[in-house]
Amino acid sequence: MVERIRHQLFLPRPVSDRLEGLAAKPGASKSAILADAVTAWLNRRGASELEDRFSHRLDRMSQAIGRIDRDTDVLLETLALFIRFELSIQVPLAESDQAGRALAAKRFEAFVQQVGRQVASGRRTLHTSSDDRP
To answer: Torsion-angle region of residue 27: left (phi > 0), alpha (psi -120 to 50) or beta?
Structure first.
């Protein structure tokens, strides 16, 4: 059995009257009601302390995710504008230009392989000097 310690406390009359009314019901006691109320209050306070402890970190993480979202939007918009620009200035290949199509396919394959190598190595084109580029 849990050790019980006696406490003396003073309650305002309206609160005391409500406590008396609740304790008058069968199976209820003032001690049990007050123990439940104090336990609930302490549990809420504990949750608040956790929130106080971690809210700063969570705020920093939210800000970092916001910056990542913004940067991703900028990169995607840059890529979309570059593709639109390139498509608008490049002359389309004729259907009969097999040599041109073969060269385009070869260049595209080289491009995809280079992207794969860059991603796999962790190197980033925007963060390297021109001497590091192949």
So the answer is: left
